[in-house]
Amino acid sequence: MQVCATITAMRAWQAVSVAEGVKIGFVPTMGALHEGHISLVHQARAQIGPRGRVVVSIYVNPTQFGPQEDLQKYPRTLDADLKLLKAAGVDAVFTPSDAMMYPHGREDILAVEPGPLGTVLDGALRPGHFRGVCTVVLKLLNIVQPAQMFMGQKDYQQQLILRAMLRDLDVPVELVTCPTIREADGLALSSRNRYLDATQRGQAIALYAALDWAKGALATPGMTGTKLTEGMHKIIQERGLTVQYASGYHPQTLVAYTGPIDGPCVGLVAAVCGSTRLIDNMPLTANLTPGGEICTPAA
Ligand code: AMP
To answer: Which residue's CA is the closest to the ligand 1 atom numbered 14?
Structure first.
């Protein structure tokens, strides 16, 4: 496994792969890796084919963190991450520094405008977050130049916005969205789960509990978006978390249902547990892919 600590080294490795006619599957991460990240590596390996190569980036991108957020304390576990990636059969790891990614500073640079999907939910709660995400992902794609990029359904709004970025900016990369990996009790794996103490870890199941309830509740006669929201909020609050949002949404427009849920629906939740912000989501109607695309049943 090649570790490329500079953009020059990554580009050189990439050029050799291109010269050999090899396709690249790319998994961008912020490190502190867990089984969710590794599932993306396995999916990349499976889809890019035996002659393909898998590249993982580890970079805690400062421009996607707000001033009050956890940039400084975000877990950094590079040695353990590299061991996990080697065991998972990754071909190359890209570990750039801030100075390499933002040599002209972070403030007065050209950035990607995330568009309308970037103004709601996490876009509204975390101003500038998706601008930072889109900008760094486009930079990483320009350096790694993969054929496919693999991301998690866990960050549902993120993958939706990045899919729009690839489409609207004609970036020749296919985005593959992979299902969320969970603990046995349903908690979605996240690098931020390591902030939770034992009590909070117990409470954190509230997000999955609300989504699981919502999925069943959709079959209740007379169910509306407003009733769904009320029920989800109640479940999360009863466990002692502070709800930021918890509702059923249209999977592509991210507009919340208020009246009858008469179309495709994804449940999206964000809640604060202690001082840790957690997010999760689940398709609530049967006809959705992990990326929120509506599949028409085979005739
Ligand atoms: P992060 O390191 O948090 O930026 O995540 C890197 C990638 O891993 C993103 O595409 C995430 O959506 C994905 N990811 C994070 N948690 C999970 C999970 N529990 N299951 C599947 N993918 C995940």
So the answer is: 152
**Quick one: tokens of 197?**
């103490």
Strand, helix or coil for residue 206: helix
**Do residues 151 and 174 lie in contact, with contact meaning Cβ atoms separated by under 8 Å?**
no
Q: How far apart are CA 8 and CA 272, in angstroms?
A: 40
pLDDT at 287 exceeding the cut of 90 = no
Q: How far is the CA of 42 from the centre of ligand 1 (A)?
A: 13
Of 296, 64, 33, the C-alpha closest to 161 is 64
User: How many angstroms does the Cα of residue 230 sit away from the middle of ligand 1?
Assistant: 28
The structure tokens listed for 146 are 């993969």
pLDDT (0 to 100) of residue 108: 86
Please, are residues 157 and 134 in contact by the beta-carbon 8 Å criterion? no
For residues 279 and 206, the answer to whether their CB atoms sit within 8 Å is: no
CA pair distance 225, 217, nearest whole angstrom: 11
Catalytic residues: 37
Per-residue model confidence as pLDDT tens digits over 218-277? 989 999 999 999 999 999 999 999 999 999 999 999 999 999 999 999 999 999 999 999
Strands 276-283 and 266-273: antiparallel
